TrEMBL record:
Chain segments carrying region Disordered: 535-570
Skewed-composition ranges (Basic and acidic residues): 549-570
Top-level taxon in the UniProt lineage: Eukaryota
TPR-type repeats, residues: 88-121
InterPro entries membership: TPR-like_helical_dom_sf, TPR_2, TPR_rpt
Pfam families assigned: TPR_16, TPR_2
Name of the protein in question: Tetratricopeptide repeat protein 16
Top-level taxonomy: Eukaryota, Metazoa, Chordata, Craniata, Vertebrata
Keyword list, A-Z: Repeat, TPR repeat
Amino acid sequence: MSGKLLLKKKADHHYQAGVNAMSQFEFEFEKAVSCFSKAILLQPQQTQFYVQRAEAYLQLCDFQSAALDYKLACMLEPQNEVYSQKLAFIYYLQGQCLYDLGMSVEALESFTKAAEINPTFRPYHMRSLACLTALGRFSDCLRLVSNWLETGDPSADLFTLRARLHKQLNQMTLCYHDVRSALRLKPGCQEASVLLKNLQETAERSHHAAVEKALMGELSDALGKINTALEYNPSKAHYYLFRGILYRRLKDFTAAIDDFVLAVGLCGIGEEPTEGEEHETSGALGGDAQTQLVLTYNDFAVQCFSKGLYREAVVLLNKAIEKQRDESALFINRGDCFFKQSEWMFALADYQLGEEMDPDNMAIQLRLAVIHNTMGLHRFNKKKYQEAADKFSVAIKHNPAVVQYYENRAKAYSKAGRLEEEKQDAIRVLILDPTNEQARITSHGHNMVALLLRLLPGCSLSDIMSCATAQSVERQMMAKIEAFKQAASEVSRIGKMGLVEDDIHTHASLTDDDPKQKVQKAQVDRKLVQSKQQLNQAVKKALHQRRPLRSDRPRLAPTPHEREETDTQERPYVWRKFRGLGLNC
């Protein structure tokens, strides 16, 4: 016991000598370190000895030794948080000295140790961030700041700091969103406002460059410019609208639809008020985006239609009609898709809806004629001849210039036993197309000429076509065709779309000629037929009244040379005359 008391007394003596050496009158820190070391040697379990020696080391700027003593103190008294905080501060001082000397890697290691010991103290992390920035490790900086925002309370300064890191990494969209977040937390943040203004000005310059490229027809370059504008300012609805139009012109309909949907959404959301920022109106811009969205749905449907994807085209047109139900061209296009799928009733319903919206549209009249003619053919094949004739009549009402409709109705009238109506339709067929023999074949296998001659015995074709009935039928038909031609079609807001322009190719039974020109052509053809008939009669008369080919005058015998040439050539045709039972030249 006396030995322990002696050691303790001697250790306390050395400890007191060390404290005296660190007093403000002497400042002998090396002597203090020596005294504290002697005391620790005598009593190594005394925590205060290590703490005092660490303080002496700090005065000598020996951070490594000071940190080692505080580590021992923390091991002896782990519950004492003061020692751990003091250890973290030592690492911070060490890191700061190394950073000032330009040793960023070593400084980062010290700051990291300090942050690990005291993770809630933000300045230690900030110094680590400074070292990472000096080393050019911006991705690590970004990861560190993002971790702070996720685990701690977000602040405008942190969002602004992360925005600058995003800008340094050329991640402009993320930079913009962080600036907006900073301004929402602190509207008067000067640094965030300046950064936002720079982003907006850069975006607007790229937008103007994109417009210039588009006007010159350089759509791909314009697309690259507007993409840059959207990276710097992704909250401008008219940027998305412009890019969507470019995508639509480039036939990238999926991307165009996405941009138009975003434009419509942004017009409804609005933006937060910031200094120097102009607000977008949701009125006209939203309407333009909605119209472009409908046009893109339609164009996409036209592309699907051209590839035979009729069901997909119907789905797209359904979306377009849902957005805009007052456009007749959309119903026409969907009716065309139903027609291609042989869904006649759905096609007819769409055409009728289009007619209600635009009764003077000739494209709708042509389609109604085709669909009624098709339905009439189905009725005819089912031997419902009167219903078929009624359908053909409706088709003729909508388009009176197609020969096939009159021919089909004549067949139905023939089957139904209505001879007078059959005769009039036969006359109409000959008026519209007097030279096309294939188009004038009836269900009986006779052409229209034979039919009229059978219905009107004793009359020639010229007499039939010049009679009062035929002239009346022709006048009525020409009047209907002229009225059909002069029917004015209002211009649709959507304009002529793919399916609307493709009327002739979509429905093969439609005529390619102008109705008035076709009637004039039919009149000329009928006159040519009459002239041909008169010429044939004159030829027959001349043949019956011809002079005999045999001559009674003496003939000279050919020379041998002429006979050889005559034998080598093909014998010409000579007329023969019956005399008794034999044939003589």
